[in-house]
Specification:
The protein has 19 helices and no strands. By secondary structure, it is mostly helical. The model has no long low-confidence stretch (mean pLDDT 82).
């Protein structure tokens, strides 16, 4: 449920409309299917490693052991930073959502309240975090299921007037609008929408019986995410013409023009905007809650490995890394305050710097799994020892690696294609890349690390 919940959020409820407006119903569907396949291979890669070696450091540990300690160091700090900044983005989004109901209320009030809620859920116990995330996810999943049922009834004409059928797939140049460039643009949006599925690797370190439960979660999460995303995009594309100007709005402040709200409204659902606003608020809080958990565990792991100040590795009697949690909470609040005061320029740069972080993590997962399997075989281990074995190796991690590279390279391809190169646009879009490389090669230069030979890769802490 954590992996499902982490991936279903404003990317689906709000931004899906702009994807259809950009590439048409067919183009948007093709982009989401392609990203869904990529995410499937990444989750099978992560599932194979985390079921055999369930650690809270997850991909940071795997990168250190199977590729290069410097890469593990950079991956850990990159992931911590990404989620700590994302907490601030979620606080901003939650505040905007609350202003739908209370337009004159102060932003700082709501952000402080929601940050306190996230902190308490993570402070009380890991069970408290898991229970909250389960119910947050359940609300989102339930909303999508109801939406799909209502949408399908509208398509065949049982609800909302006459049957729509496939007519919106044949207007103007539908189903593929804008050609390959438009599909590539949606590919980027779809990639961001699916980020959060890798949380399953972080949670594996504290899950009950990970050798049994992680494979089960990996097997189910792909079909559920693909079902929810692909079917939802398909239904929206059938019911709303891609030429509808309302679809172009992907701002969380305008919940009234969310494609979900529009369709519920047409179906005659009372208070559709208020209902979807409540669901979007749940989605935002769920993302922030997951971000708080993931970044806290990653900072704890970095301290445990000697890559961060040692006191972050301390835990209380309930096993909660309190100092790491406090530091993450403080960074989230400072980043939020940077977005409220002044012109928000500092926060914009922070957010842009974290934009590529999720894709960099995915790249690291693909590389680590490729080397994990190679090292496993090179050391004479039997593949039957693996609790879960990723199918289609080595095609899976190589395919995911290639697609992630395309997404990273194409973040702002339009900055290169105009008559004049947009250097500011390039800097804003790609600043996360040099920051990551500086961490990686800086650590490598200071510590003199090297790529770990396959025969020397460690699978056990006792080695």
């Amino acid at each position: 449920m954590i992996a499902i919940g982490g991936a279903i959020g404003t990317g689906l409820f709000v931004a899906s409309g702009s994807s259809i407006a950009t590439a048409g119903p067919g183009g948007a569907l093709a982009a989401y299917v392609a990203v869904g396949i990529m995410v499937y291979f990444l989750m099978t890669s992560l599932g194979e490693m985390s079921s055999y070696m369930p650690v809270a450091g997850s991909f940071s540990t795997y990168s250190s052991r199977f590729v290069d300690p410097a890469l593990g160091f950079a991956m850990g700090w990159n992931y911590w930073y990404n989620w700590a900044i994302t907490i601030a983005a979620d606080l901003s989004a939650a505040t905007l959502v609350m202003k739908f109901w209370f337009p004159d209320s102060p932003s700082v009030l709501w952000s402080a309240l929601f940050l306190l809620l996230m902190f308490i859920l993570n402070f009380l116990s890991v069970r408290g975090f898991g229970e909250a995330e389960y119910w947050f996810s359940m609300i989102k999943v339930g909303t999508v299921v109801i939406f799909l049922i209502v949408g399908l009834l509208m398509i065949v004409g049982i609800m909302g007037g006459e049957a729509v059928g496939l007519k919106n797939w044949t207007i103007e140049d539908a189903p593929f609008h804008g050609g390959g460039a438009a599909i590539l643009a949606v590919f980027m949006v779809a990639g961001f929408s699916f980020q959060g599925t890798e949380l399953i690797g972080v949670a594996a370190g504290e899950s009950e019986n990970p050798r049994r439960n992680v494979p089960r979660a990996v097997r189910q999460v792909f079909w559920r995410i693909l079902l929810f995303y692909v079917l939802a995009i398909f239904v929206v594309g059938l019911l709303i013409p891609f030429t509808d100007p309302k679809l172009l709005n992907d701002d969380v402040r305008n919940v009234a023009v969310s494609p979900f709200t529009i369709i519920f409204d047409r179906a005659g659902v009372a208070f559709a905007a208020s209902v979807m606003n409540a669901v979007i608020l749940t989605a935002v809080l769920s993302a922030g809650n997951s971000g708080m958990y993931a970044s806290t565990r990653m900072l704890w792991h970095l301290a445990k490995e000697g890559h961060a100040p040692r006191f972050f590795a301390r835990v209380n009697r309930r096993g909660i890394p309190v100092f790491a949690l406090l530091a993450t909470t403080a960074v989230g609040m400072l980043a939020f305050l940077a977005s409220v005061f002044g012109d928000g320029a500092v926060y914009t740069w922070l957010l842009n710097a974290s934009g590529l972080s999720g894709f960099i993590v995915w790249l690291g997962i693909a590389i680590s799994h490729y080397r994990f399997r190679k090292a496993f075989v090179a050391q004479g281990k039997d593949l039957s020892e693996l609790p879960y074995r990723a199918k289609w190796f080595p095609f899976g991690p190589l395919f995911a690696f290639a697609l992630c590279l395309i997404v990273i390279g194409g973040q702002n391809y339009s900055a290169f294609t105009g008559g004049q190169v947009d250097w500011y646009g390039i800097l804003v879009s790609y600043i996360g890349l040099p920051l990551f490389l500086a961490l990686w090669f800086g650590y490598k230069w200071i510590k003199g690390t090297r790529v770990v030979p396959l025969k020397e890769c460690r699978f056990d802490d006792s080695e």
